[in-house]
Design goal:
This protein is α+β, with helices and mostly antiparallel strands and about 1500 residues long. It is built from 27 helices and 70 strands.
């Protein structure tokens, strides 16, 4: 069935099985609204609702929880969960229009322990706050403090789901919470840092002991998600037959799509999690894609049936919604229990007997009860008088009621309430626990208390009881259809009739022939016969026909004698009364003799005489045995089903004739036969015996739909029910609404489009249908330019028929047969009408074909034709004949042209095919040859290549301590370097500013400094960058007080551990997000600077130098810095041509900067023929340094190169007049090969006289080895550069990564072992001290997991210090780090950190190369690292005296290194920025009163200084 109400688009709701007619009649009644409705409005969108048995209704919205009375008229108490007086939502998230179940800030609202002996009821609440906290409170008043609470119980994500139920465990007599939640969401780390502890990350379902103080989860109280499984969205939790059931569906929170079928998980109702299996739920009937979202859930316990609302995907804007998007499906719990299997599908389970590849068995719903609808949102089910009643919420604010039949067959839903604003109904419907005649309807920010039925709309007893609504019954004393509670003495079946008794029990007046000459009027049905009076009166004459009273518990009867004069009685009024109670009925006996059917006859009050098979007046003589006045006794002999006046067709099968007969359903009338739902009209169907009908349907067609059939100016709109519209309107933007004359029938409307001559050629108008005060938009029409006809042709195939073809320019007119009239003029103004046949549209023109039939001399008419007249609506055009080439001309020329084209195409195709085949063959041969060569060269290089590492690389160019420290403290803020590096030795010690001296003394107060740091970190705009800068300024300010700085580091580290211990201790010190983390990095840099210089510096410099040598051994593209030899695949130069080594004899000119006599000035240098001149300069400079142990004395841009050829010299430049310019204007840099320099050539190095700029500023207009795309497919000129670039494959050169690794391997291992070695069996003081400190803290916190301490040590030393050094050699040495070297060092640093990792690497063939490169070495390194950590732990602990002595010595070393006043000034800037917050914090803390005074004094001093000097 499809039902449309006042909204568009329609909202169809149809059951899977045929529906009885009565249900359709119920849906016509207007929904109840307002009389008994009470509304509670909250400040925020409602996230949860629950009703307790004794303590009212609980509503959670935003961060508030309200306790309301049952009538929703009064708030009993309120709980502010976030902060007092504020109900706003804690996270600024736009609430979705249709929130998924559980997707709110309030996650659980569970009253329990109600009615327990000597125990008060409790309320368990769960919120996203405090990482998913739960509280247990007394039910009576929310203002009382919580009894128990715990964190990480529910999902802490507003979008995440949570479902739970509290139950009493049989054995322990304790109350347990079974909760299922989406604990982890795939959202950005910065969005909501509330991820649970590592032990809970994979948890799906948990058991919590509600008696425990912190709602703890016991050891066997978790059910984990299967590893690799996606997120699950849980909708509900309920108890059935000793088990806990959780309906859910797999859901991808990132894409917003369901990833599997909705399912039901089952665990035992016990004190530990015993997984009993899962079963899939299939509610996909009637939808092609299936319904994989579960929106609402309800257990109908009395039936052992579970009801769920399922939905297909609709997209964000609901654009994919269809009449079958959602459905209500009912499942038998016994079947779900039987088919639930214990397999590793969504959950981890140890006991399973499933085969690999098995899928969950899909449970099918009860087919007869499935209801399909466009937009259901919620369901609640109950059983009343053995009838199953379902309440359904919809997405447009309707509350529907469905009553299921005996076999759970679904009925047509009744709309019992509509929200005017059409707000989607909340996914949970809650019944009133005290009065079952009310239900709480939640939508948006409102809760309404709605009556479950609109009984008063049924005006008679039979109408009330045949409605089959178990909530309604007939109240005799009130003479109304009411709820049982609204009827006095309703416990007596004589005063209140419910539907179980049936309409037969309704009081009903009958006229019965008691004997041949007597007619008795009596009352039948369930009603007390005492003290009744009955009266029969002739309405026309007001004459009393008879009167009677009830006697001795018998029904009142009234007997009328059969007299001839009574045959003239046409209208009789019969009244039964008792005090104020009156039952009356009027019998119209006017047309008895004209009625032909027994049921119709008796239904009007007449009588049926079987002997003559006629309808007679009830007071006419007839044998009592033949007299029928009861429809139940009518025999049926209907050969053909009649058609009712209302147009409804019904069928009845011929039944066996019995003495008793059968009741027959019939319809008297349907008024009106057409309605407009826009006007809220009602339909009344009158008749009898509706309950006896079967297989009868009544279809209500919805709002008319319009399809325009446009032709010229006559327009037809096709649709349905056009006979209910008032008029048709054309709406124009300039001329307004124009009423047009229309001719409308039920299925179409015709009208003549009005003239808009003053309008522009192309304009749009809207077509609207007016129904009462509502306007239906029926689309738009476009006024186009008049059609243009170019000519016509007349052809005659036979002498009695003509074909006329009219040519027309293409346009958007959709001309049909009824729109066009064509007339052919021939001879002397003779006319012939041409019958339209069809229209053919080609690329250029449109052809209209019409025919003239049954004529003579067709050929002569064709030759004498003059013109054609075309009429389109009111438009009349004349078309002239076009000149037509002779047919034989086309027949000759066309085949010849076709043959020529075919031969030419075949020839060209064959030639092209041969050429293509030849080229492909050559290319494949060339590719095969190159592949062979590259693979063989790569193999040979791995086996034979050796890198001659130069041992004498000169003095290691260490940076001094000051620059090392500043580059470490401020890696991204080079601007601070110069202000800290002014000469401090000439500074007067007494010149220190008084304000800075006071501040220096203040920060030496440990309690003050720690309080300041914690206060700053709580400020939202104190960014990560600010934290790092503050830590570095503090390090510089306390550079000479390292003992004090170390104590501050200890305090802050302990505080950080306290913060991390409640969440994930393994993440501590992992990132630089707090002051203490940056402070630790700086402290390590200060304390390990000596160890770095003495032990690690030389192997580290050797590694960088060796890596540079290997990279420069092969081609390096000077533009992109990519190289053939590298460790990083991203920097691999695979588009390289062939290259060779060129040995040069280099002569260095004697310069004033380098006049030493023992300097060798003739050096042999190896370069590559593909090197640019700039690259050759670098290699020549490096060779000079290696040969002489000292640099040449000039910068690269200060020297030039000259090629000596005999007595001629030629200066070598990267770009000169001989440079090659490619097709797209890109200049190729000159190389050694470009100048054709051969082995043994002499190159002179000379000092430039002026213009010490670089040879060229490279840009996108230059290229070196990597050619632009347009050139990559061209042959490279030159003998040494044969081959084509397009055959280069990156993977051919991956062996170069391995070759580079082998070349530096020994140097790299030497470096690593220098880092994790213990020289002289002693660890550096800083490392030993801090590692012992971490061990002690772990022991104090009773952390027994050794992995935690290992990770702490790794995060504090390798991650915070060594990786920073390994990736940045410029922090330690006076060298320049190239982007390529940076990429290679990143690979080395990754391997270094992998050596410290506890996680075993699972690498496959598809793993990244930087992981695969050192995969075999990592296990060895891991063992060495473990031994290193163990050796440090086994060393005897440092005494406090030893550590203080070390720190004091380090402090003395760095005296006068930095301008500490600058650091103090920067620290004061932060203090004054957050001065009020710091002062407030100091006021609240005890023992800091003196520090507070000092801070105020410091501010006064700085303010005074500011008056006379800019800071």
């Amino acid at each position: 069935m499809e039902v449309s109400r006042r909204k568009a688009p329609p909202r169809p709701l149809r059951p899977a099985a045929p529906l009885p007619l009565l249900a359709y009649l119920l849906v016509l009644a207007a929904p109840a609204r307002g009389a008994e409705e009470s509304v509670w409005r909250s400040e925020q969108a409602i996230g949860a609702i629950a009703a307790s048995r004794e303590d009212g209704v609980f509503v959670a919205s935003g961060s508030c929880l309200d306790q309301l009375d049952y009538s929703l008229e009064r708030r009993l108490s309120r709980l502010y969960r976030d902060q007092a007086g504020n109900c706003t939502e804690p996270v600024s998230l736009a609430p979705p229009e249709r929130p998924r179940p559980g997707s709110s800030f309030s996650k659980l609202l569970l009253p329990y322990r109600e009615g327990a002996t000597d125990l008060g009821g409790l309320l368990l609440t769960g919120w996203t706050f405090d990482r998913g906290a739960c509280e247990v409170r007394p039910l009576g008043n929310l203002s009382r403090s919580s009894l128990r609470n715990g964190t990480e119980v529910v999902s802490c994500h507003p979008q995440g789901s949570t479902a739970g139920v509290v139950y009493l465990a049989d054995r322990s007599n304790r109350w347990y919470l079974a909760v299922a939640a989406t604990y982890v969401l795939p959202e950005p780390e910065t969005a909501n840092r509330c991820n649970p502890a590592a032990s809970d990350r994979g948890t799906a379902i948990a058991l919590k002991n509600t008696e425990g103080r912190s709602l703890a989860t016991e050891e066997l109280g978790r059910l984990k998600l299967r590893e690799g499984a996606g997120s699950l969205h849980f909708v509900d939790a309920f108890l059935w037959n000793g088990s806990v059931y959780f309906p859910y569906y797999p859901y991808n929170y990132t894409s917003g799509a369901a990833t599997g079928w909705p399912s039901m998980a089952r665990i035992a109702q016990s004190t530990e999690v015993l997984f009993q299996g899962q079963a899939a739920l299939d509610c996909g009937h009637g939808h092609p894609d299936g319904r994989r979202l579960l929106l609402s859930s309800c257990l109908v316990e009395a039936l052992d049936v579970w009801a769920g609302v399922f939905s297909a995907a609709t997209g964000e804007g609901q654009e994919k919604r269809s009449p079958a998007t959602t459905a209500l499906c009912l499942f038998r719990m016994s079947e779900i229990q039987a088919r639930a299997k214990n397999c590793r599908w969504d959950f981890e389970t140890t006991q399973h007997n499933c085969k690999e590849g098995d899928q969950p068995e899909r449970v099918q719903p009860i087919a007869s009860s499935t209801l399909i609808h466009s937009d259901l949102t919620s369901v609640y089910g109950t059983v009343v008088l053995n009838r199953t009643v379902l309440f359904l919420g919809t997405g447009d604010g309707q509350l529907l009621k469905v009553i299921l039949g005996e076999n759970l067959t679904s009925n047509c839903p009744e709309v019992i309430y509509e929200i005017k604003e059409e707000t989607p109904v909340f996914y949970k419907l809650v019944p009133d626990p005290r009065k079952n005649i009310y239900i709480y309807l939640t939508a948006g920010k409102e809760v309404r208390r709605i009556p479950v039925a609109n009984c008063s709309k049924h005006k008679s007893c039979s109408e009330c009881l045949t409605a089959a609504d178990p909530h309604c019954g007939w109240c005799h004393s009130l003479q109304r259809c009411t709820f049982q509670g609204d009827c006095a003495h309703s416990e007596s079946s004589e005063n209140w009739l419910d539907i179980s008794l049936g309409a037969k029990k309704c009081p009903k007046i009958q006229i019965i022939r008691s004997s041949r000459d007597k007619t008795t009027v009596t009352m039948v049905g369930s009603f007390s016969p005492r003290y009744l009076e009955c009266v029969v009166r002739n309405v026309d004459t007001s004459r009393l026909l008879c009167q009677g009273k009830s006697q001795s518990n018998r029904t009142c009867t009234c007997t009328i004698p059969t007299r001839p004069t009574y045959r003239d009685v046409l209208v009789v009024n019969v009244t039964f009364s008792f005090h104020s109670w009156i039952l009356s009925k009027r019998f119209n006996l006017t047309n008895c003799s004209s009625l032909r059917e027994c049921p119709v006859c008796i239904g009007t009050g007449c009588a049926w005489c079987n002997s003559v098979r006629k309808c007679i007046h009830p007071f006419t003589p007839c044998d009592p045995s033949d007299y029928q006045s009861n429809q139940e006794l009518c025999q049926v002999a209907v050969e053909k089903p009649p058609k009712t006046p209302g147009g409804g067709r019904f069928k009845e099968n011929r039944s066996n004739r019995t003495n008793q007969g059968l009741q027959v359903f019939y319809i008297k009338a349907i008024e009106p036969q057409k309605i407009s739902t826009l006007g809220k009209s009602s339909v009344i169907v009158t008749g009898a015996n509706f309950t006896r009908a079967s297989n009868i349907t009544m279809i209500l067609k919805g709002t008319s739909t319009c399809d325009k059939d446009v032709g010229g100016q006559n327009i037809t709109i096709v649709g349905r029910n056009f006979d209910v519209i008032d008029n048709l309107i054309i709406s124009h933007e300039l001329k307004g609404n124009i009423n047009v004359s229309e001719h409308c029938m039920a299925t179409f409307c015709r009208f003549l489009a009005p003239s808009l001559k003053s309008s522009k050629a192309r304009t749009n108008v809207a077509v609207k249908l007016r129904v009462q005060d509502t306007y239906l938009d029926c689309g738009t029409l476009q006024y186009l330019e008049d059609p243009r006809f170019t000519g016509y042709r007349v052809e005659s195939e036979i002498d009695t028929e003509l074909e006329v073809k009219i040519q027309k320019e293409n346009d958007n007119f959709n001309i049909s047969k009824k729109d066009i009239e064509i007339t052919l003029f021939h001879g002397e103004n003779k006319q012939l009408n041409c019958s339209f046949e069809n229209i053919t549209r080609n690329q250029d023109l449109t052809t209209i074909l019409c025919k003239i039939k049954n004529i003579r001399n067709a050929n002569s008419i064709a030759t004498s034709s003059k013109k054609v007249r075309v009429r389109l609506g009111n438009l009349e055009l004349y078309v002239e004949q076009e000149s037509v080439p002779s047919t034989w001309y086309f027949l000759i020329v066309l085949p010849v042209l076709l043959v020529i084209v075919i031969f030419a195409a075949v020839g060209v195709t064959r030639q092209k095919s041969k050429e293509l085949s030849r080229k492909q063959s050559q290319q494949l041969e060339l590719l095969e040859s190159e592949l062979r060569k590259e693979i063989r060269d790569g193999f040979a290089e791995l086996q034979m290549d050796k890198l001659d590492v130069v041992d004498s690389f000169g003095t290691v160019p260490f940076l001094d301590y000051k620059h090392f420290a500043l580059r470490t403290f401020f890696p991204e803020s080079g601007g601070f370097t110069h202000i800290f590096t002014e000469d401090m030795h000439n500074r007067d010690a007494n010149d220190k500013n008084e304000s800075l001296t006071a501040l220096d003394a203040l920060i030496c107060n440990k309690s003050f400094l720690v309080t300041v740091i914690h206060t700053l970190e709580k400020q939202k705009n104190f960014s990560v960058k600010d934290r790092c800068l503050f830590a570095s300024f503090l390090t510089i300010a306390l550079q000479t007080k390292l003992v004090y700085l170390t104590s501050i580091l200890e305090v802050l580290t302990r505080d950080l551990m306290e913060q991390s211990s409640n969440m994930q201790p393994k993440l501590m010190l992992r990132r630089t997000e707090s002051v203490v983390e940056k402070l630790l990095t700086n402290w390590m840099s200060v304390c390990l600077s000596g160890f770095l210089r003495e032990t690690v510096g030389e192997p580290f410099y050797l590694l960088v130098t060796t890596l540079n040598q290997k990279i420069n051994k092969g081609p390096v593209d000077v533009i992109t810095c990519k190289a053939l030899y590298t460790l990083n695949e991203d920097w691999l130069l695979w588009q390289v041509p062939e290259f060779s080594t060129v040995a040069l004899n280099v002569v260095f000119e004697k310069i004033p900067e380098n006049e030493s006599a023992d300097v060798c000035r003739n050096i042999s240098v190896n370069v590559l023929d593909c090197d640019t001149i700039g690259q050759a300069k670098e290699k020549i400079f490096q060779a000079f340094l290696s040969k002489n142990g000292s640099p040449y004395g000039l910068q690269l841009n200060e020297i030039g190169l000259e090629l000596q050829v005999g007595t001629r010299q030629k200066e070598l430049l990267d770009i000169d007049s001989s440079s090659v310019i490619l097709e797209d204007g890109i200049t190729k840099l000159n190389t050694i090969g470009h100048y054709e320099i051969s082995n043994g050539s002499t190159i002179k190095v000379f000092k430039k006289i002026a213009n010490f700029t670089s040879d060229v500023e490279y840009s996108d207009d230059h290229c070196h080895l990597i050619l632009p795309d347009s050139e990559a497919f061209q042959d490279v000129q030159g003998k040494r550069h044969r081959g084509k670039h397009k055959f280069k494959v990156k993977e051919m050169y991956l062996t170069k990564l391995l070759s580079t690794k082998v070349a530096i391997h020994s140097v790299l291992e030497k470096l690593f072992r220098s880092i994790w070695s213990l020289p002289n069996s002693r660890a550096p003081f800083a490392i030993k001290y801090f590692f012992d400190f971490l061990d002690a803290q772990a022991e104090n916190k009773k952390i027994t997991d050794p992995d935690v301490v290992h990770i702490w040590k790794t995060n504090s030393l390798p991650l915070r210090f060594w990786v920073n050094i390994l990736k940045n050699p410029q922090f330690v040495f006076d060298i320049k780090k190239t982007p390529h070297i940076d990429g290679c060092l990143s690979v080395i640093a990754q391997a270094f950190m992998d050596a410290f990792s506890l996680t075993e690497q699972q690498l496959g063939k598809e793993a990244p190369t930087n992981k695969l490169l050192y995969a075999k070495d990592i296990p060895t390194y891991k063992e060495e690292v473990k031994s290193y950590y163990k050796a440090i732990r086994d060393l005897p602990p440092l005494s406090s005296l030893e550590m203080e002595e070390f720190l004091t010595q380090e402090s003395k070393k760095h005296e006068n290194e930095f301008n500490e006043e600058v650091a103090l000034t920067e620290i004061y800037k932060y203090i004054v920025k957050y001065f009020d917050e710091i002062l407030n914090k100091l006021e609240r803390e005890r023992g800091l009163e003196e520090a507070q005074k000092q801070l105020l004094h410091v501010k006064v001093l700085f303010d005074e200084k500011k008056k006379c000097k800019w800071m």
